[in-house]
Amino acid sequence: MKKNTLHLMIVLVFATLACGISSGPATSGDAPVGDSNILFQDDFSNTSSGWDRADWDGGLTDYGSDVYRMVVKIPSYNIWANPGQYFEGDVRVEVDATKITGEDDNDFGLLCRYTGTLESPSFYFFIISSDGFAVIGKGTAGVTEYLSSEFMEPSDAINQGSTLNHLRADCIGNSLTFFVNGQQVVSTTDASYTGGDVGVTAGTFDIPNAEIAFDNFIVRKP
Fold first, then answer.
1. How many CB atoms within 10 Å of residue 182?
2. Which segment of the chain is annotated as a signal peptide (predicted)?
3. Please, are residues 111 and 125 in contact by the beta-carbon 8 Å criterion?
4. Across residues 35-39, what is the average pLDDT?
5. Coil/strand/helix, residue 161
6. CATH number, position 147
7. Confidence check: pLDDT of 113 > 50
């Protein structure tokens, strides 16, 4: 199917989401080891590493069993979470993502250059679905649009169903490139944002109750 639904990224109005933003290179509960290009990393084993923790009618974001869980409970809804960092300029963001429950008609992925207020955020997003589609887009004042194509595009690089996918988002200058399991799937250019926080996102289309687990989150200098 052609996935052309543009979600309004609903802001999660919880005190736990008001993470402080730090400046410059940062580490997490997992200090970088042996790679000077690593700016931030987290295997989610430390529940105090700074990610959002909330449970409300629309969804859940929290640590669980050494992963970071996102549950989207209602249809046509997207949520996201950030570690409360700030990176100016070029970054390469990576994560392992697995669908735990729900239909394959979902979306999940990565964020970069996240700035703004909770009510009016701006960011780039790199998402796939469990039925094998991908797209790059951006949010401006909380409203999203696709950039790399009019619709989410199918890709054989995506592991469908509940199989793990390794996601990588390169935010380098005006170039935005999305890799899944080591293969480039989509790319585009945009000059709207130059720096900000990173994060993960998950969402639903027509069918509610999607749960995604994230692990091995890494931010590098490309």
1. 8
2. 1-28
3. yes
4. 92
5. coil
6. 2.60.120.560
7. yes
Q: Which of 165, 177, 176, 120 is nearest to 144 (CA)?
A: 120
Residue 16 lies in a domain: no
| Domain, as residue range, for 189 | 38-220
Domain membership flag for residue 28 = no
Beta strand segments in 6-90, E: 38-42, 54-55, 59-64, 67-72, 78-81, 87-88
Phi/psi region, residue 87 (left: phi>0; alpha: psi -120 to 50; beta: rest), is: beta
Closest of 218, 167, 215, 219 to residue 65, by C-alpha? 215
Residue 18 lies in a domain: no
171 occurs within a structural domain: yes
pTM (predicted TM-score): 0.89
43 contacts 168 by C-beta, under 8 angstroms: no
Report the residue count for the chain: 222
| Interatomic CA distance for residues 213 and 167, integer angstroms | 13
Quickly list H helices, 40-164: none
d(CA 71, CA 102): 9
Tally of domains in the chain: 1
> Positive or negative, the Cα torsion across 63, 66, 70, 73?
negative
Per-residue confidence (pLDDT) for residue 171, from 0 to 100: 99
The number of C-alpha atoms within 13 Å of 46 and in the hemisphere containing its C-beta is: 12
